[in-house]
Write a structure and sequence with these properties.
The protein is of the alpha+beta class and 321 residues long. It contains seven helices and eleven strands. It has one domain: paralog of FGE (formylglycine-generating enzyme) (Alpha-Beta Complex). The radius of gyration is 19 Å and the shape is globular. 45% of the residues are buried.
Length: 321
């Protein structure tokens, strides 16, 4: 049933009246000065995984078919995330100094007891250390604000968009020495994030798809998940999450090695990311020891019904003791 529901979310019912062509667009948030851009990712097929890797969770390489969607040009920044986090801040970003009642009704994260920027800065910097649940609730806030269904990418969508038609270890080829042109990572950065868009984009216009911060996908992490697709064509696969840990994180971060920035490289959330959290139960909203994880938005070309959308957003959080 969960799998059927998510396929409905992927396939949807009809094209939004707000965006009738599958092309790059700018999403403005009415009543504010906030906006962000989305790149059109075409439908297609690709080989997911890596035959060269020694890591078992990247095998077997298998054929995947993906429907068209849009993906955020950049990782979500604090400029966009902070109005969701703090109502008072959202008011300052509103042109009339007010927050609509339906927007105000959206549950906001608990205010973090630590500086969740970790001293990296806010303006133009990727938002980080939010939980998987927090990331989905941000998408809900955007939906109430814009009327457009935004969500996390599936793991397959993420790798497909990252590869941008390539079959090499990185979207630019196999030479890791070129990574510094495209990614903020352990060997090229200074131990922290950088403003989004400072490196070169991949061929489909996605900046920082490798490095800077790792990016949440919707999927539950399962080491042997690919085995079921061996010798088959998987259509829009998604491992619908049912447990708190682990969820798949892709792309590597400013603190990752070159190997962990490969297009096929998989990572997973870890309870250790909340070890410093003194609350009982631990926060549903923050990972105080994960300044290396952030998010990027996806929008399906054909959106689901409002009822299906709210089922996606309103899934109750799982307590973390």
């Amino acid at each position: 049933m969960k799998r059927i529901l998510f396929f409905a979310l992927l396939a949807g019912m009809q094209m939004s009246n707000a965006q009738t062509k599958h092309e790059r667009y700018t999403q403005k948030i009415d009543g504010t000065n906030l906006e962000f851009t989305m790149e059109a990712i075409p439908a297609g097929e690709f080989k997911m995984g890596s035959a060269k890797s020694s890591k078992a969770d990247e095998k077997p390489v298998h054929q995947v078919k993906i429907d068209p969607f849009w993906m955020g040009t950049y990782e979500v920044t604090w400029n966009l995330f902070e109005p969701f986090l703090y109502k008072d801040f959202e008011v300052t970003k509103s042109t009339d100094g007010k927050v609509p009642a339906n927007v105000d009704a959206v549950t906001r994260p608990t205010k973090p007891y630590l500086d969740m920027t970790f001293g990296f800065g806010k303006d133009g910097q990727p938002a980080l250390a939010m939980t998987h649940y927090n990331a989905i609730q941000f998408c809900k806030w955007l939906y109430i604000r814009t009327g457009v269904f935004y969500r996390l990418p599936t793991e397959a969508e993420w790798e497909y968009a990252c590869r941008a038609g390539s079959t090499s270890e990185y979207f630019f080829g196999d030479d890791a020495a070129q990574l510094g042109d495209y990614a903020v990572y352990k060997d090229s950065g200074n131990g922290k994030t950088t403003k989004v868009g400072t490196k070169k984009a991949n061929p489909w216009g996605l900046f920082d798809i490798l490095g800077n911060v790792g990016e949440w996908t919707y999927d539950q992490y399962q080491e042997d998940y690919y085995k079921q697709f061996d010798g088959k064509v998987a259509a829009n696969p998604v491992n619908v999450p049912s447990k708190l840990y682990a969820h798949v994180v892709r792309g590597g971060s400013y603190d990752s090695s070159a190997e962990d920035l490969r297009s096929a490289a998989r990572a997973a959330s870890d309870p250790f990311w909340k070890q410093l959290d003194p609350q009982i139960p631990k926060s549903n909203w923050w990972f105080p020891e994960a300044p290396f994880v952030g998010m990027r938005l996806v929008r399906p070309v054909t959106p689901p019904s409002n009822e299906e959308i709210m089922k996606y957003y309103d899934k109750a959080p799982i307590k973390d003791f």
